[in-house]
Write a structure and sequence with these properties.
Length: 243
């Protein structure tokens, strides 16, 4: 039976964050961004292993970042792009897993992921599916701009989704897709799979699973995570009161 493995590319340094420290190492609620996602995956028995892909000689990485982690390991095979880091990670773990094992690729800068979302993704897949990604139906109207920042077109939002992570595919199929189309610079794993002719499934994500891109995003995600925690605690108290 196919197993589930997580790959978290963490070799990037987002310039839009306006921080000397790569965003995956920025602190949120007392721990680095990447550790939030790691802790969620660590707590799921369905997940067999977790691999963090960092740059070689990453000065920000400290072994203490994985204190109390039991199925997470680090590989210093990060590349210049996200796609390269993911591909290098897939190659590095190929000998230790099966070709048809599922790989869940997750952004280190999405600390709001939770077990409910991951289970929704895993449960949405059947053996005949090529894979799936978390995503949200687009809520805002899109405008295309010309070279002078004037509106040139309004793009209907119907049937448009905003991609999130994890993005989940079979190991060998994803490795083949990224190897084939690496030079076309896919912006996510699903795009490489699309170029191979596959149709990944869209699975409903969550607003709190947003990616940290700008400085103000930290406060937004912190508020969304706190709201979700409060709602869960309230529901638990309500259930207890009904016993």
């Amino acid at each position: 039976m196919a197993k589930y493995h997580v790959l978290i590319p963490s070799a990037g340094h987002g310039t839009r964050m306006q921080s000397e420290t790569p965003k995956q190492y920025l602190m949120l609620n007392g721990k680095p961004l990447m550790r939030h996602a790691i802790d969620v995956f660590e707590g799921m028995p369905e997940i067999s292993s977790i691999v963090i892909v960092i740059s070689e000689n990453d000065p920000y990485w400290k072994p203490a970042l994985l204190n109390d982690c039991h199925k997470t390991r680090v590989m210093s095979v990060g590349g210049e792009t996200r796609a390269t880091s993911v591909l290098n990670g897939l190659k590095a773990i190929a000998a230790s897993i099966e070709a048809d094992d599922w790989i869940l690729v997750h952004d280190a800068a999405r600390p709001g992921i939770d077990q409910a979302m991951i289970n929704r993704l895993i449960n949405a897949i059947s053996d005949k599916d090529v894979g799936a990604i978390l995503a949200l139906p687009l809520a805002d109207t899109l405008k295309r701009a010309d070279a002078n920042a004037f509106i040139s077109e309004t793009i209907p939002r119907e049937k448009l989704w905003q991609a999130q992570t994890p993005q989940m595919f079979r190991h060998d199929q994803l490795q083949q897709a990224l190897t084939t189309y690496l030079q076309r610079h896919p912006t996510d794993e699903a795009q490489a799979m699309e170029w191979m002719g596959y149709q990944p499934k869209l699975v409903l994500g969550d607003l709190k699973n947003m990616k940290i891109t700008y400085p103000q995003d930290l406060k937004v995600v912190a508020a969304l995570m706190q709201s979700a925690h409060t709602e869960t605690a309230t529901l638990s108290l309500s259930d207890t009161g009904n016993l």
